[in-house]
Write a structure and sequence with these properties.
The protein has helices at residues 2-13, 18-31, 38-42, 90-93, 110-123, 136-141, 180-190, 205-208, 237-260, 282-291; strands spanning 55-59, 77-81, 97-99, 128-132, 150-153, 155-157, 174-175, 195-199, 264-267, 278-279. It is of the alpha/beta class. It folds into two domains: 1-32; 44-291, sialyltransferase cstii, chain A. The strands form two sheets. An eight-stranded parallel sheet has the order 5-4-3-2-1-8-9-10, with helices on one face. Helix 7 (180-190) packs parallel to helix 9.
């Protein structure tokens, strides 16, 4: 019976429009892992609960960071992202982890990515690195990040498909993201951090119309074609707001997961538009530590 049904379904699928076949092919490609990446992904299980009950700081790259003295984080467990190794005082607060989102090839060539990764490696100190699986090939082929611990994630699924409040398992395919702090939050929660503090996660460029950083880019300068050389955003508001809606849904889902698992996420940055988490100024947060 099952064999006969399979034959019928196979024949019926041949009658479907090409577009449906293409959608199915892309869905399968997104959700199925190749044999080569499976062992690497499963190795993330060693990270589960590594920092159970502790606190970490996720430092974003928004311009508000320029008003902060990040060296006060010396001795804390810090997670930096993307070009964050360019922050003033980076080597003093010495992040333990560094997170990079999936790279869009076409926007950047492989040679540009290799140059960026080389610059990154030279400035990361002892930080362990998180990359998406799509970068495993170029790292291996060009022998990048020699001597550095590199973890890989698989950004394959969707936040909109999550139906529970379990901590997201980074040893399996995880939701695609619209901003790298979202990935850093997933990683931090998986590693067991109970208090997660955000800095420089501004998400307010839509107000000014300009996308800027807390530092001057080096290797990656002028590689983002969604903005002008001065940082002016080229996307129409419609597209910008669609992206923001997706991003806010991702933060809201993470806030729900955190709440259900006894995790506290605090936005200690200055200004910005992210309103999904409680806000406590960094100086007040650190002064509360001293008072205990």
């Amino acid at each position: 019976m099952a064999s006969a049904l399979k034959k019928v379904m196979t024949f019926a699928s041949m009658l479907l429009p090409y577009g449906v076949h293409e959608l199915r092919r892309r869905h399968k490609q997104r959700t199925e892992l190749s044999g080569s990446i499976l062992p690497t992904l499963k190795a993330n299980r060693e990270l589960a609960g590594r920092h159970q009950g502790r606190r970490c700081f996720i430092v974003g790259n928004g311009p508000s960071v320029k008003a902060l003295d990040l060296t006060v984080l010396e001795g804390e467990t810090v997670i930096s992202v993307s070009n964050g190794y360019l922050h003033a005082g980076y080597m003093r607060f010495a992040p333990k982890y560094h997170v990079v989102p999936q790279i869009t090839y076409g926007t950047m060539t492989e040679d540009q990515v290799a140059r960026w990764f080389t610059e990154m490696h030279e400035n990361l100190g002892e930080a362990e690195l998180f990359l998406n699986e799509t970068e495993a090939g170029i790292v291996a082929e060009r022998k990048l990040f020699s001597g550095r611990k590199v973890h890989y994630v698989a950004l394959r699924t969707s936040f909109d498909d999550i139906g529970n409040t379990s901590i997201i398992d980074i040893a399996k395919p995880i939701p695609r993201i619209d901003s790298v702090p979202v990935l850093a939050l997933m990683i931090a929660m998986y590693m067991g951090f109970e208090n997660i503090v955000l800095l420089g996660v501004d998400h307010d460029s839509w107000r000014s119309g300009y996308y800027t950083y807390a530092f001057d880019l080096k290797t990656q300068a002028d590689t983002d074609f969604s903005v002008t050389s001065e940082g002016k955003i080229l996307s129409p508001n419609y597209d910008t707001f669609q992206s923001l809606a997706r991003l806010w849904r991702q933060y809201r889902r993470l806030a729900m997961i955190a709440s259900a698992n006894g995790i506290r996420i605090i936005n200690a940055g200055i200004g910005g538009e992210l309103d999904e988490f409680e806000r406590i100024p960094l100086n007040l947060l650190l002064s509360q530590d001293k008072a205990r």
